[in-house]
Request: fold
Amino acid sequence: MSRPLTLTLSCAERPGIVHAVSSFLFEHGCDIVEHQQFDDPLRGQLFARTAFVCAEDTDADRLSAAFQVVADRFGMSYQVAGDRPERVLVMVSTLGHCLNDLVFRWRAGNLGGELVVVVSNHEDLRPMAEAAGLPFVHVPVTPGGKRGAEARLLELVDEYRVDLVVLARYMQVLSDETCSALHGRAINIHHSFLPGFKGAKPYHQAFDRGVKLVGATAHYVTADLDEGPIIEQEVIRIDHTFDPRALATVGQDAEALALSRAVRWHTEQRVLLNGHSTVVFR
Reply:
């Protein structure tokens, strides 16, 4: 038996979809090891994720080409993914808590993807990246030089054969063009005080207002700032004893948790786009 392959698909609801998928896999000598599906009655859409192993010597590309016949019959959008870990580029600025958490989970073997390079507009986190054995590329963003910096980023995506870009507290707004180039394969993390506490020192603002919940949101990057489809959110309850420094510490914990889950679920093909939302098969 080979290692598991994964088929993800979405299409309009109609009878016979699951039967067609299972019959196709049976005819190609494949054994289903996990199947999850979601029928969205409001949108009339079906979403499915099927993990399977094949007795014969096959690969994702050949199965994907063969499955096109089934997909055409039902008007499916689909992907067949192999067992190669997705290659992940991490973008950072000066805050290292998310990078540190991603590195820890990657080394422990439970991140899902393979970290391959760290890119930053500052030099601060070079020691952390290089201590983990990761290449660190400094791409400064200067006034008037943003277009060149983003062009360099996309060059690195090609150079390192990157599948997923992770903005791990990267404090720059990507242009609409770069967001489009990375559509569906770039994840951002931010504290969930937005838009209530915008601008500088959000945790000080939250302290002044006496918040009782601290949270973080991981979402896909789109041209609409911080409004991309949400993958995961983490919330931690706090009380009046938390000063701004304690709030920031709790907030960083929430950011690291939400981001690592989003990265793992994406790299395991557990996230499917559903309009401006997502379907997440945990």
About this structure: The radius of gyration is 21 Å. DSSP finds eight helices and 13 strands in the chain.
